[in-house]
Design goal:
The complex is a heterodimer of chains A (328) and B (306). Helix content of chain A is 67%, strand content 2%. Chain A is mostly helical and 328 residues long. Chain A has a domain of 211 residues. Chain A is globular and about 60 Å long. In chain B, the strands form two sheets. A two-stranded antiparallel sheet of chain B has the order 1-4. Chain B has a two-stranded antiparallel ribbon with strand order 2-3. Chain B starts with a helix and ends in a 14-residue tail after the last helix. Chain B has 306 residues and is mainly alpha-helical. In chain B, strand 2 and strand 3 form a beta hairpin.
Chain lengths: 328, 306
């Protein structure tokens, strides 16, 4: 395998990520990085929907919530262990993604954004109100932490931060590799075709309905995985963790990284996930500075940090000089 | 209370909150109509408007004792100051966060909008504190019984003032040169530029108008609920955005209709189903409507862009 700059970048990033548990960091730092890793999984999943396929989705936190609640309830009610609970968490979220996708696909563009936003809010409010099942606003308590068995005993992840870091790192790696493979596959090319020009894609024989549903399902399934990881790490989940602000923040991570870019989604999640913590020194002004940094970053690089993919030409709104030939 | 009385009461309550939604929704829809941008920071402008109004009120030290012309004068001053302040704020937001990205990929403006939201929310939190602030109820508590429903003087004031503003806006858009320029830019910015219409200035004026209307909505919100918080911009902004889409985004009468319809639906949903589920009710109606009429109640077909 030749060493291209991209592969070198992946390798360096991976080595640094693996070295984190060995670095002299305290539990708080590792915890911040773990949370950023969960954001990275979410951003990678949303990137399939928004970046690869070009469907603007504003209710992505709903699938995160569905994954988290599926594992949490299985764990608390039925005592299902984490590794077994991952499967239904991913599956339920994925199926919900497809089911919610079927009606939503009828609407396009910005209207799709508002329909998905509506779904996101409906799911969150439903979880809050269905108290007999979900514990309502108090959430679910006492979710089992992951546990590994080996000959000679079991190891419970408990509340330590390093094991979760390793688990989340593995998840980011698996999802990132899967996403890059998907992007280059037949279905990935179908998604890109839909993003660039849906009508042309349909004319070339792409089953746009199926491809769009698949994108929504894949994205939702990844969010389900992230949800199960989140629930297992926190041990307690409440509906407040899955609001519209989270959906928008994840979208911001994808856009900041560069739409459609797999490393971009990870970098965007790391930047937006850790920046508020890095700015702690500014104390009460930190969220204001965070806002200023977001505006400056986009003004400097509007296409995103790793925005390499060709996006559809935008209709220019402010006039640009036209070159009209005299012979026309 | 009989079924008819309950219906009337919820209708009146819904119409009141709907009028406030409509005022905020106008800002979303005008900006969207002109440059196809969802201004996610608009809810925060509304919230800043409410706080500006509160600041003016506390400057005058007005409490419950103001009556007659002095009350009217104070309220007018509040409205003018809040609308002017937010108009300037809207102008600044457009210049700092949106204009530099007019040619960038469309979602880039989303990030700067979130940045603006963070800045405004935290600025208000630092200046006024994170707790709920009391907003004095200045309008005399006169109430009437109409068909068994209680209508307050405050509700009438909200209906009349927001209605007057909407009529004024519609007149401005349909009958003035500025309004014609706005409609032209919405149709084809490039052609406008070729014809010598100052597109950038028209876009800036659109932001000023939308922000001013949101600020007036903020004043009414404070008077109606008597308490404001720096978080209110988020939830009201989301509702108003929903209202704008419900009516057909980009369509000015649509935003008015959408706001009032959403308010009434919420009122009726809260009255007949349960108050807990009223937000779900609003969104279910929205999703259902968009599935059958994908461009909203009064919407035109929009170009497909992702």
């Amino acid at each position: 395998m030749t060493m291209t700059p991209t592969r070198l970048g992946w390798l360096v990033g991976f080595v640094i990520a693996c070295a984190v548990p060995g670095l002299p960091l305290n539990a708080y730092h590792v915890d911040v990085l773990t949370t950023a890793g969960i954001y990275a999984v979410l951003a990678l999943g949303l990137n399939i929907v928004v970046g690869f396929t070009g469907l603007l989705h504003l209710g992505y936190a709903a699938f995160f919530a569905i994954g988290a609640y599926t594992y949490a309830l299985l764990s608390v009610r039925l005592g299902v262990p984490f590794w077994l609970g991952l499967v239904p968490a991913i599956a339920v979220a994925g199926v919900c993604g497809v089911l919610l996708g079927i009606p939503a696909i009828r609407v396009r563009g910005d209207y799709l954004a508002i329909v998905t936003l509506g779904f996101g809010e409906i799911v969150r409010i439903a979880i809050t109100n269905l108290e007999q099942w979900t514990g309502g606003p108090n959430g679910v308590l006492g979710i089992a932490h992951p546990r590994v068995w080996w000959p000679g005993g079991t190891y419970d992840f408990g509340v330590a931060s390093t094991p979760y870091y390793c688990l989340v790192l593995a998840a980011v790696l698996v999802v990132a590799v899967a996403c890059s493979r998907l992007a280059d596959s037949r279905i990935g090319r179908a998604w890109a075709a839909i993003r660039e020009d849906e009508l042309a894609a349909a004319c070339c024989g792409v089953n746009t309905f199926q491809a769009k549903l698949l994108a929504q399902g894949c994205g939702a399934a990844v969010a389900g995985l992230a949800g199960a990881l989140f629930a297992a790490k926190q041990g307690t989940i409440t509906p407040d963790s899955f609001d519209f602000v989270l959906s928008v923040m994840i979208l911001a991570m994808v856009v900041l990284g560069g739409l459609g870019s797999v490393p971009g989604a990870i970098i965007g999640a790391l930047v937006l996930g850790t920046l508020p913590e890095l700015l702690r020194g500014f104390d009460q002004y930190r969220m204001m500075i965070f806002g200023v940094v977001m505006i400056l970053m986009m003004r400097v690089r509007p296409q995103g940090l790793c925005g390499g993919v060709r996006l559809r030409r935008q209709r220019s709104v402010s006039p640009q000089p036209l070159h009209v030939s005299a012979a026309a | 209370m009989t079924a008819g009385q309950l219906f009337l009461q919820q209708l009146a309550n819904g119409l009141t909150i709907g009028a406030i939604y409509a005022l905020i929704a106008l800002g979303y829809t005008m900006v969207y109509g002109v440059i196809q941008l969802i201004n996610f920071a608009h809810g925060e402008v509304f919230m800043v408007g409410a706080y500006l109004a509160l600041t003016i009120l506390s400057l005058f030290g007005v409490g419950y004792d103001a009556v007659g012309w002095s009350l009217l004068g104070v309220l007018a001053l509040c409205a003018i100051a809040a609308m002017g302040g937010c108009g300037l704020l809207g102008l600044g937001i457009e210049r700092a966060a949106y204009r530099p990205l007019r040619h960038a990929p469309r979602l880039a403006a989303l990030i700067t909008a979130i940045g603006v939201s963070f800045i405004l929310q935290n600025a208000v939190m630092l200046c006024y504190g994170a707790t709920d602030r009391h907003f004095p109820s200045l309008i005399p508590a006169i109430r009437w019984q109409i068909g068994g429903a209680t209508i307050t003087w405050l509700q009438v004031v909200i209906w009349l003032s927001s209605g007057a503003l909407m009529v004024a806006l519609q007149a401005l858009v349909m009958c003035t040169q500025l309004g014609r320029a706005m409609r032209a830019v919405a149709q084809d910015p490039k052609a406008c530029w070729l014809l010598g219409i100052p597109v950038d200035r028209v876009v800036a004026v659109t932001f000023v108008l939308g922000s001013g209307l949101a600020a007036f909505g903020g004043l009414l919100f404070g008077l109606y609920y008597n308490t404001i918080n720096f978080h209110d911009g988020y939830s009201m902004g989301l509702k108003a955005f929903t209202a704008a889409v419900l009516g057909g985004i980009g369509n000015i009468p649509g935003a008015m209709v959408g706001g009032v319809v959403l308010g009434i639906l919420e009122g009726l949903g809260a009255g007949y189903l349960s108050a807990q589920w009223k937000n779900v009710f609003a969104f279910v109606v929205l999703v259902g409507l968009l599935l059958f009429k994908p461009t909203g109640l009064l919407g035109e077909r929009v170009a497909e862009r992702a």
